[in-house]
Design a protein that fits this description.
Distance between the termini: 144 Å
Number of helices: 4
Helix content: under 10%
Strand content: over 45%
Largest sheet: 5 strands, mixed
Shape: elongated
Number of strands: 69
Strand order of the largest sheet: 2-10-9-5-6
Radius of gyration: 75 Å
């Protein structure tokens, strides 16, 4: 935009300069003309003075040939962008020549400043001054004048010509629609098409076409507006009320303009798509009254012509929609329904409905089919079994048929005449026919056969059903084989039983029972007999069990049967031991009883201890399960503490089967704690050292509680004290001299308690020989335990021996030396410690 403004400003400045130059040239031309007039006046004055000769001389130039136009410019019309040539040729040229545009002088130069597209072409000698305008534009549209100035007594001459620049329309459109687009409009709805032809010079004319035929609106007035300098836009409106005949009609708007070539018209076209209801549907492929056969292929075609959009076609059968798929070709719609005629299609109403968005209600066409079909089957109902002499009712019913089927009977090979029948309408289409008859069962026949025929006489098709009635006869009683009653069957062995029944119609149904409980069997049938076999894996439950075989058929009211009872030998499965009383304590008498489970024959019981038999007492027996015998054997024993943990075994043996079972019991004798005698009742420790005294007990139950006391005062049970008890152990972390004394340990359980005293002796340092804290009277004549090495017994002292002092004056070191082994000689020199062990 800035560049355009700059160019416009420069152009204006250049034109102003050019106008100034032209003005200056015009002044010079007027000055030159003034001088010429003055010269003429001067000549006239001299002619008056000189006389006639001078007059002749003065008038001679005035009668010379004047300048004139040889070719006068004429009006010219050119197409925008083309070249315009304004011709101007002057004969007897004397003055200066220039062109003006709308009164504005363009100058005397061949190249016109400020007008780069303008130039003057020609030859001054020939007087040719043609104005050429290249790439003509609307701005060149003006009045031009070729001016020849006065010279040498030649007056100025001028010639006008008009240049008209024409421009074709820039565009053409039907407002709101592109070229070749569809204009959708409802039938009889007002429609206005507005065509606009823009920016033409001069204004374009608009012509409408319907199809290829010019269409003149009733009130066709074009509106012309000047949209820019010397450019005009023309608008034409076409008002329509389309009908169905206007569907697919093309309306074209064409611009007429002198700048447009007839071979290349400017036009725009739209096609109307007029929405209107479809035509009524019609059905092809079936005519009313036509007869179809079941299984025949039927093709019903529904068509509808016209309508925009094309009709939607839907098939209905008895009011239910069956097919929506349809196809269109132009304004033709088609829906083809192909099917195989069935019985249900008889009297079925097939309706086709056509509709589109313009339809108030669907348009309909309907046909009712007539389908002939024979019954697909007949059914005979009646009993399947009967006794001789029974009167059997039979009913035959056909499947639907059109026309109704007829029924024919054959019973026992003979046709039944005068059989009645009735026909009813079937909901599936057509009719069903039924017929009832009775037949008497004759003797000496195993069966009675009834045949029913269903015939469609019009189609000559026939269906048949056969019904067989078995004549009932009872079977022979069943027989059991494979086992003789009383025969012994060892438990665990396999026994097969076979039941056979002969005759009967139908053959008997055989069923095995064990004590009234049904069991499975293997059934085998022959021509005139049937068998049922069972395989028994004998067990205790089969002893004295009754196995029964029953034979029955439709002719028996009460089953026929035979039974047998099995005898099975079986060993006892378990033995159980009881102790009376249940809690054993030393000093009481206990009875130990062995009970054997049921056995056949009775089991033999025996008691054993450490593999040695024990004689039992009160060997009794009584009836047990499964027909066996339960046996009992017991023995008595006086309980002592030492019997705790002793094991006794009971054996139950079935000698016939050489099988036995065993059970063992361990005596649990309850008694109070009893201390295990310690190595010594005295414990010796060294002052300042630690000491532990440990005791053990035997008891049942084994959970024992220990309590340590000294002088009746309980010893603490936790390890935070210097002296503490831990179960059967007494611990001294650091011995004091006053720790010596007698300590009592009491052990208790649920059965009682026991107490043991331990004497603790505290020695001083091991280098002090002798026992000054004891007088000789305290150990004279007593046994002494002598240790060598100067260490206390709990510090690893070596025990040398035990002896009796011979007299109270015997030196202790001498006593020690006397009992030393040879390898320990010299020990006395190091001193010996000694401890009296005599009790008070």
């Amino acid at each position: 935009m800035a560049l355009h403004s700059a160019l416009a400003s420069a152009t204006q400045h250049h034109q102003q300069q050019h106008q100034h130059q032209q003005h200056q040239q015009h002044i010079k031309w007027q000055q030159h003309a003034t001088k010429r007039r003055r010269c003429r006046q001067h000549w006239i004055k001299h002619l008056q003075l000189l006389g006639l000769v001078v007059i002749v001389l003065a008038t001679t130039p005035c009668h010379a040939q004047q300048q004139k136009f040889r070719t006068t410019p004429h009006d010219l019309q050119v197409l925008e962008g083309a070249e315009a040539m304004m011709r101007c040729e002057v004969a007897n040229l004397a003055g200066a020549v220039q062109w003006t545009k709308d009164g504005f002088a363009l100058g005397f130069s061949a190249v016109i400043p400020g007008y780069p597209r303008y130039s003057v072409l020609g030859d001054r000698k020939q007087g040719v001054y043609n104005l050429r305008i290249s790439n003509a534009s609307i701005s060149d549209d003006a009045d031009y004048q070729c001016q020849v100035g006065p010279a040498r007594l030649n007056s100025a001459i001028r010639a006008n010509a008009k240049l008209t620049v024409i421009s074709p329309p820039a565009s053409i459109e039907i407002k709101g629609y592109s070229h070749n687009s569809k204009v959708e409009v409802r039938e009889n709805q007002d429609l206005q098409l507005k065509c606009i032809v823009s920016n033409a010079k001069p204004a374009a004319q608009i012509v409408w076409y319907r199809g290829n035929v010019e269409y003149k609106p009733e009130k066709g007035e074009d509106l012309v507006e000047e949209t820019s300098s010397k450019r005009f836009t023309t608008t034409s409106s076409l008002k329509l009320k389309p009908g169905s005949d206007d569907d697919y009609t093309e309306y074209t708007c064409q611009a007429k303009h002198k700048a447009l070539s007839p071979d290349m018209p400017m036009r725009v076209t739209v096609q109307l798509s007029v929405l209107y209801p479809p035509g009524p549907p019609y059905i092809e492929g079936y005519s009313p009254g036509e007869t179809l056969r079941r299984g025949q292929t039927v093709e019903l075609m529904c068509r509808s012509r016209g309508g925009n959009p094309p009709a939607q076609l839907i098939w209905y059968k008895n009011g239910s929609q069956i097919r929506m798929a349809y196809r269109t070709s132009g304004r033709l719609s088609e829906n083809i329904y192909t099917f195989t005629a069935e019985a249900g299609d008889n009297k079925a109403r097939f309706r086709c409905e056509a509709s589109n968005v313009m339809s108030q209600t669907p348009l309909k066409a309907e046909v009712e089919l007539s389908v002939l079909f024979a019954p697909t089957y007949v059914t005979v109902m009646g009993p399947t079994e009967a006794r001789v002499g029974d009167i059997v009712p039979l009913t035959c019913t056909t499947a639907p048929s059109n026309p109704p089927a007829e029924i024919k009977w054959m019973v026992g090979g003979r046709q039944v005449r005068n059989a009645t029948s009735k026909t009813i309408v079937s909901p599936e289409g057509g009719w069903t026919t039924s017929s009832n008859i009775t037949a008497t069962v004759e003797p000496n026949k195993r069966s009675l056969v009834a045949i029913c025929h269903g015939l469609n006489m019009q189609l000559t098709e026939n269906v048949v059903s056969t019904h067989t009635i078995n004549v009932l006869y009872p079977p022979a009683p069943p027989l059991i084989s494979g086992y003789i009653e009383g025969q012994i069957i060892p438990a665990g062995s396999v026994q097969k039983l076979l039941c056979v029944s002969s005759g009967g119609n139908p053959l008997a149904t055989l069923t095995w029972y064990k004590n009234d409980k049904r069991i499975n069997s293997v059934i085998r049938s022959a021509d005139k007999s049937v068998s049922a076999e069972i395989t028994v894996l004998a067990n205790v439950s089969d002893n004295q069990a009754q196995y029964r075989c029953e034979a029955s058929n439709s002719a028996t009211e009460i089953p026929l049967f035979q039974s047998t009872t099995l005898s099975v030998h079986f060993a006892p499965e378990t033995v159980k031991i009881r102790i009376e009383p249940e809690e054993l304590r030393p000093g009481m008498e206990a009875t130990i009883i062995c009970d054997s489970s049921s056995s056949n024959p009775p089991a033999k019981l025996s008691w054993w201890k450490d593999g040695i038999p024990i004689e039992g007492i009160n060997n009794t027996s009584k009836p047990g399960l499964w027909g066996g015998t339960v046996s009992t054997l017991e023995f008595r024993v006086n309980i002592t503490q030492e019997m705790n943990g002793q094991v006794y075994t009971c054996q139950s043996a079935n000698e016939a089967l050489q099988r036995s079972v065993h059970e063992a019991v361990t005596l649990d004798v309850l008694y109070r704690p009893k201390f295990v005698p310690p190595p010594s009742s005295t414990a010796v420790g060294v002052e300042g050292e630690s000491l532990q005294v440990s005791l053990q007990t035997r008891a049942n139950p084994t959970t024992v509680t220990y309590k340590w006391t000294k002088d009746g005062i309980a010893i603490p049970q936790d390890g935070e004290h210097r002296i503490f008890a831990d179960g059967g152990s007494l611990n001294f972390t650091r011995l004091h001299r006053d720790d010596a004394g007698i300590y009592s340990c009491t052990a208790s359980n649920s059965q009682g308690k026991a107490t043991l005293n331990i004497t603790v002796v505290v020695e001083r340092d091991h280098h002090q020989v002798g026992v000054r804290e004891y007088s000789r009277e305290s150990w004279r004549g007593c046994d002494a335990i002598v240790h060598c090495g100067g260490q206390a017994p709990d510090r690893g002292a070596r025990k040398v021996g035990t002896g009796r002092l011979r007299h109270d004056s015997e030196d202790i070191d001498h006593f020690c030396q006397r009992h030393l082994l040879p390898s320990h000689q010299g020990c006395a020199t190091r001193g010996c410690g000694q401890l009296p062990v005599c009790g008070r």
